[in-house]
Amino acid sequence: MSTALVPSHLLAPAGTGNLDAYIQEVYKIPVLTLEEEQDLALRYRDEEDIDAARRLVLAHLRFVVHVAKGYSGYGLNLGDLIQEGNIGLMKAVKRFDPDREVRLVSFAVHWIRAEMHEFILRNWRIVKVATTKAQRKLFFNLRKNKKRLGWLSMAEVNRVAEDLGVKPETVLEMESRLSGQDIGFDLTAADDEDKPQVAPAAYLETHVADPEIHVTDADESEHNNGLLYQGLGELDKRSQDIIRRRWLSEDKSTLQELADVYGVSAERIRQLEANAMKKLRASLAA
Q1: What ranges do the domains of the chain cover?
Q2: 126 falls in which pLDDT band (50, 70, 90)?
Q3: At a CB cut-off of 8 Å and minimum separation 6, what does 78 contact?
Q4: Domain made up of 3-123: CATH architecture
């Protein structure tokens, strides 16, 4: 459904600069009776009457405002929430089936809240706090409980986990995310010079991409490998085979497997391995 069927000043109240005027205007739009709603819904479904869809949307804008006010505690602009809810309302009108004998408002509430939830999750923090379906459900339910109870006790954590079908560890992790806050990577100068703020840029520095370190590490690794194979060359054939099969092979052999190969005890293989490792360490240290 195109957003063109609704006047832009009603679809996006955040752009009007006067949210109160928008709310007053949508509350002036008459509420539809059951018969009117059914007639409009049938006209839109059967005849693709865009004007009927437009009247359905306009008559329910007040309900979007009501739902949006319920999410005012998330610190986001109410006008933006209403705008997202209006998109959900239009999606609901497009999918509404009047033959199911359900009022549009009961069907649309799920679409309206879904759009608002997605907007909140995208904008509540710089880093998205919930990605999976379980985390999204936990985010809204846990925040509601924390506003009422503060920090949750372990018994409350277990109860929330049981109610929502998640692990207690997941509840604790989400509680930690809810208690955090965004910090700028490069902080501005602190007002209090006695208590300077330390920007994350100062302690999150990484040298992983430093070309000099890459070259140095590669040279050191090549040097150590050369010493290792030089040391192996100084061992007898049996000791070489034991070291390769015990340490350098992906499918490592056990002491008993090598003992069976050489017809000696596992303890003897352990002694040979220990002597070979001692010689290799000496070679690497030289």
Answers
A1: 3-123, 133-179, 211-285
A2: very low
A3: 19, 68, 69, 72
A4: Up-down Bundle (1.20)
